[in-house]
Amino acid sequence: MSVAAYLEKNKDRFLQELFDLLRIPSVSADPKFKGDVVAAANFVKNSLQQAGADRVEICETPGFPIVYGEKIIDPNLPTVLVYGHYDVQPADPYELWDSPAFEPILKKTAIHPEGAIFARGAADDKGQFYMHIKAFEAMMATSDLSCNVKFMIEGEEEIGSDNLDKFVLANKERLKADVILISDTHMIGMDNPSITVGLRGMAYMEVEVTGSNRDLHSGTYGGAVANPINVLCKMIASLKDENEHITIPGFYEKVQELSAAQRQRLNEAPFDLSEYKGKLDIQEVHGEKGYSTIERIGIRPTLDVNGIWGGYTGEGAKTVLPSKAFAKISMRLVPDQDWHEIATLFENHFKAIAPASVTVKVKAHHGGAPAVVSDSSLGYQAAEAAMEETFGKRPIPTREGGSIPIVALFQKELGSDPILFGFGLDTDALHSPNEHYGVKNYLIGIETIASFFRHFSALQGK
Ligand code: BES
Ligand code: MN
Ligand code: MN
Q1: What pTM value is reported for the model?
Q2: Which of 92, 165, 231, 338 has its CA 20 to 30 A from that of 176?
Q3: Domain membership of residue 376 as a residue range
Q4: Index of the ligand 1 atom closest to the CA of residue 161
């Protein structure tokens, strides 16, 4: 039986299994879900075993475990390492979901007329890494496996992969591979397959601004004592100028500028601005002057407030001059910005611009390096050929705005090319209410992954 026939025969079960995984609320950020995150690790372990992997192991870390498994059919054959993450983002605000976040259901949408799976983690990343386990099962069952394969599925990606670095460094030999496959990104569209070759890095900061030593009556003191929320807003506003250029001294020093030819190639990717605005229900886009939307996302760094709080936010009105204000601020970085350096530049600048009427605390949460991967490696060529086969169209390379901090470490420490082999769409509502993943994307992904293995071993001449 061919992989395609096996897939056709088993597709309902492949969907049901993914549903079972999606029912586990493996939210790594929230201690309330600790047991569920561990349950998801066990689920992954069992699915790897059932698919036919050997040496399947739950590798404990100081945080959540890393699930490892492998199938070495012949040490002379090329080896594929698969990376993914079984943890998910928090699902709140729950009330904005049309159906419960951890009760997956199939629904048709305009973009997915044949149906999409709605659940937290459907696209990021359960639906995407699970394709690899199912492709592996299909290749095993049909005697089509032409490469050795290793799986490393972690549970802390959404909180910065703190313990993965150490695991990778301590297990370099075990993780040795000729290529690393990661399905945790988007394509331009079903009609426009693409392969991601760039990811932004990240520096995630939290600031605390304190005025008076306690909350005050805003009539008795208002206008005479600094309001830390007002001050914080002013400080944040000053972090970008009228051209949306970041004002932190030294921020752009290491930013790689692309040549005119490189920029032109990037901008040749299919992109419809009015469709983009339409899907987001916005009248106009907004970003750094002098760059297109594709460039603003792919090759330019940026700074965003992710959350801001302080004072009174309950029902009705309370007159108060708060003592403290807080914000979570992230900066997306591009090559060759270093997140530790950027975090320091931010901290120094933020303290320098604070008026004497307040005190400021700055802390760095987590960060990660940006990455650019080759668009001509053997792995890339195999991915290109596989997509061309299943989509009937040659994929183009794109640069994405999201971050997968471990990619840069893979390049540096494992020395093999990571292939960002994502099958999601940017409309999948990652990290948002109503996250979903197209059934067609899921199934074509499984088929394309199996095709990758064939092309990769053929290109290696084995
Ligand atoms: N899968 C995403 C990254 C991603 C999304 C890349 C879309 C390209 C396109 C990943 O799970 C993620 O959300 N990463 C975080 C970074 C992490 C350090 C919290 C991100 O990008 O915010
Ligand atoms: Mn992800
Ligand atoms: Mn994510």
Answers
A1: 0.94
A2: 338
A3: 3-199+370-459
A4: 18
